[in-house]
Amino acid sequence: MRITLVGSRHFGVTTLNMLREHGVSVVRVVVADAEDRLAATAKAAGIDVAVQANPKLVVASEIAPDTDLIITAHSHARIGKDALAAAKFGGIGYHPSLLPRHRGKAAVEWTIKEGDPIAGGTIYHLADRMDAGAIAAQDWCFVRKGETARELWERALAPLGLKLLADVIDYAKVHKALPSKTQDEQFATSAPSLS
Fold it and tell me: Residue 152: which of 120, 193, 185 has the closest Cα?
């Protein structure tokens, strides 16, 4: 399976490492910033790196030829329809909430702010609306009393994201398709910025 990874920062790097250990071929990494640690890690591993022309949008020309699947890992760019069409299975991303709850940025922070006793993560199909694509995989965890968003992310949600991504890739290898379950819009929340 040929993967184009779109991402940044520490979670982008840990996702890249997980993919490489998982027996898939990461053929290109797409970043918004050429100085990002994900770009440096990819270059050191001999993986082609593309820098987005527009940091808010990934276009088809930035996706590696013959890509089977686009994966986003800590990317705030929208993956354009043309880019999704360039990949055999389209694209998936990880969102650190039980979608459709806490769509948008700052999902972990909103989990804490809302006092949710349960958090979770979702692998979802990339779509036109942010975090609104069909669910490919989902799992949950408890939130500890007094836990900060960063503590919850590091303890539970980042590792959960890596596990769920690996599970979906394994499914796609066997079934030659991605699992897909429509989000239930009656439970959708879209949190405003915390700033």
Answer: 120
Measured CA to CA, the distance from residue 188 to residue 97 in angstroms comes to 11
- 141 sits in which H/E element: strand 135-142
Q: Strand 57-58 to strand 78-79: parallel, antiparallel, or no bridges (unpaired)?
A: parallel
Q: What is the pTM of this model?
A: 0.93
DSSP string, 3-72: EEEEE-HHHHHHHHHHHHHTT-EEEEEEES-TTSHHHHHHHHTT-EEEE-SBTTEE-GGGSPTT-SEEEE
pLDDT in tens, 166-194: 999 999 999 999 999 999 888 887 655 55
What's the one-letter identity of residue 113? K
Sign of the CA dihedral with 166 first, then 83, 87, and 61 last:
negative
What is the distance between the alpha carbons of residues 32 and 34, in angstroms, rounded to a whole number? 7
